[in-house]
Structures are given as C-alpha cells and as structure tokens.
Amino acid sequence: VTNGGKTTLAEKLKKMLPNCDIISQDDFFKPESEVETDERGFKLYDVLDALYMDEMVKSIHNWMNSRTSSGVVTEEPQNTYDSLKNTEDVYILIVEGFLLYNYEPLNELWNRRYFLTLPYEECKRRRSTRVYQPADTPGYFDGHVWPMYLKYKHELEENASNVVYLDGTKSQEELLSCVYSDIIQELKKLRE
C-alpha cells in the first residue's frame, strides 16, 4: 500500500542485517512523459506499465550473480544468532515496492514476502502529507491510487502464496521486530 512504511522498514532492516542491500521499485519509474494518462487526466503511475520492470528484474539478477554487498552494516546487528554474527557468506537483498508480487518474472525469486496493509482513511491521510513529483491532482487518490491498490491486492490474494500480511498501523518498532525475527528464522532454515 502507498505510504505503508515499506521504505522505512527496509532501511531499518538494512542497518540490522549482515551484508544487506535494498533495491527499490521507485527507482524504476518511467519518466512522466512515458506514463499513460487516462480519460480523467490522471497519470497512471500505480500500474506495472509505469515502471521499467524488466530493468528491475535485471538489477535483481545482477545483484544475485555478484553476491556482494554495496553497503556495510552501520549498526551492530541486534539479537542476531551467533551463527550469523560475522558471517561473510550471508547476503540479503530486500526488494521493496508496491507492485512486486503482481509481476510474474519476480515471483520465482522470493524467499519471503511481506505485504503492508492500511485502512483507507489512514492511507489517504498519510498520502496527503507527502509531496510527489508530479504532485497528486485533486481526486487522484480516490480515482486511481486506492482502486489500483485494491485491484492488485485482490490479484495477490488470489495468486500468491506464502505472503505475510503486516498491519501498517502498528508501530515501526513492532513491524521491524516482527519482520526481523522472521528473517532470522528464515536464515536459520536456509543454513540447515
């Protein structure tokens, strides 16, 4: 969901996990001139066609093939199991975005899937506090953003499995703790 805390959560996890990188779907938006406009004059940013998804997939594959971290852990990993401390062979890529699970070429790549949700009113409130380039036009949230969220969420619920739904109204600390613990458990399983 837009403004659900995806980027904030990803950045906090990066600081806590060893050899962790982030690829953000927002970095793959097409220029405004290439984004379609509907009959109401709304730029259709909340659809897969507004993104260079093939480039995103290529970036993920490049990272997977290089298995290196572009960054370093900036804080001592907290509550990390001894088996993960100072482990140079653990590499984690967090891919964050709003249409990740609706793009078939990506679905074979995920070890874990998290989906942040927000109720309509909270989502609209948060969205109204953000400044976008180009700016949201009047009626854009109700006429395009929210309907696309509902459409893609419905598709996800019908087609994807192993998705962990997270309540975006919970505190950042609660969400971070939940996802971090889950990732540590997944790493333990992968290393067994």
Automatic annotation (TrEMBL):
It comes from the Eukaryota. It catalyses: beta-nicotinamide D-riboside + ATP = beta-nicotinamide D-ribonucleotide + ADP + H(+); beta-D-ribosylnicotinate + ATP = nicotinate beta-D-ribonucleotide + ADP + H(+). The keyword Nucleotide-binding applies. Coiled coil: none annotated. One of its GO terms (biological process) is NAD+ metabolic process. The keyword Magnesium applies. CDD domains: NRK1. Keywords: ATP-binding, Kinase, Magnesium, Metal-binding, Nucleotide-binding, Pyridine nucleotide biosynthesis, Transferase. Gene3D superfamilies: P-loop containing nucleotide triphosphate hydrolases. GO terms for molecular function: ATP binding; metal ion binding; nicotinate riboside kinase activity; ribosylnicotinamide kinase activity. GO terms for cellular component: cytosol. Pathway: Cofactor biosynthesis; NAD(+) biosynthesis. Pfam families: AAA_18. InterPro entries: P-loop_NTPase. PANTHER family: URIDINE KINASE. Belongs to the uridine kinase family. NRK subfamily. This is NRK1 kinase. It comes from Chauna torquata. The lineage of its organism: Eukaryota, Metazoa, Chordata, Craniata, Vertebrata.
